[in-house]
Amino acid sequence: MRATRTLPLAITVTLALSACGGSALSGGGGDGGSDDGKVKIALLVPQSGVYAPLGKDMEAGFRLYLEENDNKLGGKDVELTVVDEGAGPEDGVPAGTKLAQDESVDAVVGIVNSAVALGLTDSFTEAKKPLIITNAGANDITGKSASPYVWRTSFSNGEVGEAIGGHVAKEVGDGKVYLVGPDYAAGDEFLAGFKKSFVAGGGKIAGTQMTPFGKTTNFQPYLQKVRNAKPKAVFAFYAGAEAVTFVKQYDQLGLHEDIPFYATGFLTEGGALKAQGKSAEGIFTSLHYSSELDNDKNKTFVKAYTEANKVPPTVYSMQTYDAGAVLDKALAKGTGGDQIVEGLKSTGEVDSPRGPWSFSDKQGPDQTYYLRKVEKKGDAWTNVIESELTKPSS
Amino acid sequence: MTALTANFITDNGVTMIDGLATGVLLFVIALGLSLVFGVMDVLNLAHGAIYLLGAYVAVALLGGGTKMTLLAFGGAVLLAAIIGGFSGWGLSAMVRPVAHRGHLDQALLTLGIALVVSDLVAMKFGNDVRSIPAPAGLDGSATIFGQSYPVYRLVVIVVGGLLAVGALYVIERTRVGSLVRASVVDPQMVSALGVDTKRLVTGVFAAGAALAAAGGVIGGPILSAYPGLDNRVLLLGLVVVVIGGLGSVSGALVGALVIGQIETLGVSLLPDHASFLVFGAMGLVLLLRPQGLLGKKEATA
Lengths: 394, 301
Known about the structure:
The complex is a heterodimer.
Chain A lengths: L2 H17 L18 E8 L6 H17 L3 E2 L2 E9 L4 H13 L5 E4 L3 H14 L3 E3 L16 E3 L4 H16 L3 E8 L1 H16 L3 E9 L7 H9 L4 E4 L3 H13 L2 H4 L2 E4 L6 H6 L7 E4 L8 H14 L5 H17 L5 H9 L12 E2 L5 E2 L3 E8 L2 E9 L6
Parallel strand pairs in A: 1-3, 1-4, 4-5, 5-6, 7-8, 7-9, 9-10, 10-11
Antiparallel strand pairs in A: 2-3, 11-14, 12-13, 14-15
Helix pairs in contact in A: 2-12, 3-4, 5-6, 12-13
Chain B lengths: L1 H39 L6 H16 L7 H26 L6 H24 L15 E4 L2 E4 H23 L1 H11 L1 H6 L4 H27 L5 H16 L4 H21 L4 H15 L13
Helix pairs in contact in B: 1-5, 1-6, 1-8, 1-9, 1-10, 2-3, 2-4, 2-8, 2-9, 3-8, 5-6, 6-8, 9-10, 9-11, 10-11
């Protein structure tokens, strides 16, 4: 067998492998059922693959809540087990299904990836086990595929885009805005949400460019199109590695000085912002949290979190911290699946670092979104709060 | 007509230059892959991991995002090349036992090594994206066709171009080069003539890996460093080799330049088909000229 015949094969193998990151199950095995006065919570967060940094933040957030409350939720001692969600549904769904079927586990918290969340809704409904989603943003999770057992403390993608659309329309006035982001489900939802309020606010679109998701390392050709269109502003919705490359190249290619940059908040959150550094200066984003938020609850949260983890909390930490808070209230009612769900229904207002919020009747957070701006504070770059944005309609 | 051409140039001139930068960088990365395949007939899927090693050498030495001098950057390139060279040497020793057992065994072995290396790197440096700054003095921008363009990418074109000329010279004009070329065509004959092919093969492996690791540092300010980048780079490298033809320096050069333009100009002209362009081009080459643009017709093995 000679080379040219094997090469395409090799490429196929590499493609397949790069699609599924490594993963392995970890975390302790379950022992014993749910005795009175004891409760077992499983944290399903990525410990491997591209989302591992998010998983770390989420775990740290949840652990902080437990620590502040003597390791008790609803007055019951908590046994915590952490399970790897992996890089995508091929790892996350089997791991989650196992947790749904494990009778010793009372509730599951976490999940970064929307495909994992959507893939697990049925198993959790069947098992009548509460699943508190603390990141995955697909609109359908609390929309079309809603289940009485699936709750969300994070956000829905459409809202994050919708929150800032009206503001951008007002800022650019007669000018046009160029939209650019990754070509996958969440990207489409950010985009649709943005367009909804942007067009309603009289905004005009200069062009829309979706880039292949997870495959783009050089954004120059897209940025050239943006430049040629001469927009008054750019709205982008990248996250993770792509957010870093995009923002750095936006700066390197000289667009940073010329064209104002608006984005969804994940673009400049946590490790991404650290890697972007000065290139991200002055970017405006929308999100329901920033470690810079000025309220008492957040100040104590940031202080305690920073002391424990050496880095300030991210939105991912906060969302999972809040899952601790809602479970604390719900578990006071009992530990069975239906009892916890009843408890979640009567959560009422949550005193959160993001400001007070409560569950909507869709079981997602009814919350305020903020306009944030990247500025340097001391040695580190942060997202300074500029103002509150209008609450999205959903 | 001329107005149209002029428009095309102002609209896409910068993009074409960027394609050149991409292509040159790809050449530096893919050359080793091509030669190792050509000389040893070994499919080295750990090549991307070696690129990643190089990129993280830059992160370790220069990380942090602070300004750094040209000297420090040059030092990082050199150190990465040395580490890459030794890794290549080690790889060639590990691969030798399976060298005659077909491509599948080699692919499995090198892929396993690649997975181990990238996991070790992730354990050491974490899963976050780490950016690598361009050296001071080269981190500004120049004006081309009335638009600003990073100076660093122009430097990449020059440095990569020099490397390409150097590699072409070594392979085409020197005695070592002629031995390498001869080994591509008929390794048994070269061995029968009394040449120590083992050393030759190890040398080629090490040199290719050194280039890939150096490419990791040089490409750092453009592509940053993060887990998973190795697969991306390996994939593009393999495509370059398929398009250019195996074991030929000029083939790798042509393949890299073509892919560079497809990844930039092609994407710019047909943005909605961006995901398919590179593989479409590869498919076309495989269909029309399976030995690659500059590859020689296969001898019967």
